[in-house]
Amino acid sequence: MAIGQYRDDPTEMDDIEREVAAAQYPEGGLVVGLGIGIVLPVLTVQALLVVTPFLGGVVGFVLGRRFRDYAIRRRRRDRSATE
Q1: Backbone phi, then psi, for 78, in 5-degree steps?
Q2: Helix and strand tally (H, E) in the chain?
Q3: Do 46 and 7 form a contact (C-beta atoms < 8 A)?
Q4: What is the SS3 assignment for 70?
Q5: Short-list 56, 58, 59, 63, CA closest to 34
Q6: pTM, two decimal places
Q7: Is the Cα torsion angle 72, 6, 26, 10 positive or negative in sign?
Q8: CA separation for the pair 25, 57 (Å, rounded)
Q9: Which of 22, 24, 60, 81 could link 29 by a cystine bridge, Cβ 3.0 to 4.6 Å?
Q10: CA nearest 56: which of 29, 23, 22?
Q11: Cβ of 44: how many Cβ atoms within 10 Å?
Q12: Residue 55: CB partners within 8 Å, gap ≥ 6?
């Protein structure tokens, strides 16, 4: 089951999708998730150091994708309200 429609080719995107993709929400969420996944086990239990970076990265990426989709919907709604 796909999370949603994902296009990474700029020629297939409209201007709103290109603007949001340029902000790199999923990639930023991935980096933050990986960082939390590394720091958290170092501060708690070192055995979690193997698993939590992966889980943190996945969670961060999914949250970033959700935020990206929200930003696209919000900007499209704003555009349609002004037209």
Answers
A1: -60, -40
A2: 3, 0
A3: no
A4: helix
A5: 56
A6: 0.49
A7: negative
A8: 13
A9: 60
A10: 29
A11: 11
A12: 37
